[in-house]
Design brief:
- By secondary structure, this protein is mainly alpha-helical.
- The chain is about 55% helix and about 5% strand.
- It has helices at about 5-15, 25-40, 45-50, 60-80, 90, 95-105, 110-125, 150-155, 160-165, 170-175, 210-215, 240-260, 265-280, 295-305, 310-325, 330-335, and strands at about 180-185, 190-195, 200-205, 290, 310.
- Strands 1-2-3 form a three-stranded antiparallel β-sheet, covered by helices on one side. It has a two-stranded antiparallel ribbon with strand order 4-5.
- The longest helix is centred in the C-terminal third of the chain and has 22 residues, at about 240-260.
- The N and C termini lie far apart (about 70 Å).
Length: about 350
């Protein structure tokens, strides 16, 4: 009997690992307990790492769909390279070449890591055996005016801080964020948040790079599984600073978009008015006039050489879609123009 193609074998291997309805959390706890017992018995890190009750299981339909797509790409690559009928075991020899190919092709670290995870799942290879780029949420440069303890933050809470430079959420919102709160709606990725006072808010992401990073946060997680573990919030972690940075980033992005495409101002105005309407409120600010800072806040900004006038449409877009406020003064004083 003729051997099946490697692409077929990769997809078949994944199908055999379907474990819909099985508790990933229970398998994770079981793994940690076994590794802990081995550690107490003096087992090496490598020996403990080999214990993984989650191995051989794919818990969600969405993960299966993503992985099937990715191993299909790997299969196509192998066929193009002349390896149409090789076995799963033999295909492991070409995984690093494939990852290097994706890097050379300009694929993002997020795409590459997803591809590697899928291929290793299908072949039984160890993901730690392959060199691949580290996933990071943000490459925003940090300013020199940061607080001293931000160095502590970067070292001990790097993943959480990087995530919040994109999400811009409050600590409690991050702690409660679950995989099911991140959804795809048309060409948008939406993060649904229960904010202060139990209000249901949404953050909408439309940029391709941002959408990819947000979706990667829930990769491999069950719908009700939290995105960030409780341990990630222990100790000193200045999440508000990252929330402020997100506000500034979006404000500048809106300004640039309007500058390049003046007709886009109407789009942002519509989004602001819609956000107010969704809250059952009416916007009483004049969107056609800039926001000019006054009083003590003006004196502070003058002393620090900062802007005294801000685009009201861009400010309120940030206020309603990022911060889930509805006031220009709060958004400027505590976020966009904060020292």
């Amino acid at each position: 009997m003729a051997r099946n193609t490697i692409k077929f074998e990769l997809k078949k291997s994944l199908e055999q690992q379907a474990s819909y309805g099985r508790s990933k959390h229970a398998d994770k706890i079981s793994t940690y307990e076994k590794r802990s017992e081995m550690k107490a018995e003096g087992a090496s890190y490598e020996e403990r790492l080999a214990i993984n009750d989650m191995k051989g299981h794919i818990y969600s339909y969405k993960t299966m769909e993503t992985y099937q797509q990715q191993v299909g790409y790997f299969g196509d690559y192998l066929i193009r390279e002349g390896h149409k009928k090789i076995s799963l075991e033999e295909s492991k020899d070409y995984i690093q070449d494939y990852i290097d190919h994706l890097i050379e092709d300009g694929k993002s670290p997020w795409t590459i890591n997803t591809a590697l995870a899928a291929v290793c799942k299908a072949t039984g290879a160890n993901i730690h055996d392959y060199k691949h780029p580290r996933r990071t949420i943000s490459k925003i440069e940090r300013g020199n005016s940061e607080r001293q303890h931000d160095k502590y933050n970067e070292k001990n809470h790097a993943d959480l801080l990087e995530a919040n430079r994109l999400l811009g959420m409050r600590r409690a919102e991050l702690q409660n964020l679950r995989a099911e709160n991140i959804i795809e709606r048309g060409d948008q990725v939406v993060v649904q948040i229960i904010g202060k006072g139990g209000r249901h808010n949404e953050q909408i992401f439309t940029l391709a790079e941002e959408k990819e990073k947000i979706l990667a946060l829930k990769e491999g997680k069950e719908p009700n599984e939290k995105i960030f573990s409780r341990e990630m919030f222990k100790g000193d972690c200045d999440l508000h600073h990252e929330r402020q940075q997100r506000a500034i980033t979006v404000y500048n992005s809106v300004l640039q978009d309007i500058k390049k495409n003046p007709e886009r101002r109407e789009y942002y105005k519509e989004q602001v008015l819609k956000a107010y309407a969704d809250r059952g409120r009416t916007c009483h600010e004049n969107l056609d006039n800039p926001y000019c800072v006054r009083g003590a806040n003006r004196q502070r900004l003058e002393a620090s050489g900062k802007e005294l006038s801000y685009d009201r449409v861009a400010v309120l877009y940030v206020s309603t879609t990022v911060l889930n406020h509805t006031r220009s003064d709060v958004t400027i004083e505590h976020y966009i123009a904060k020292s």
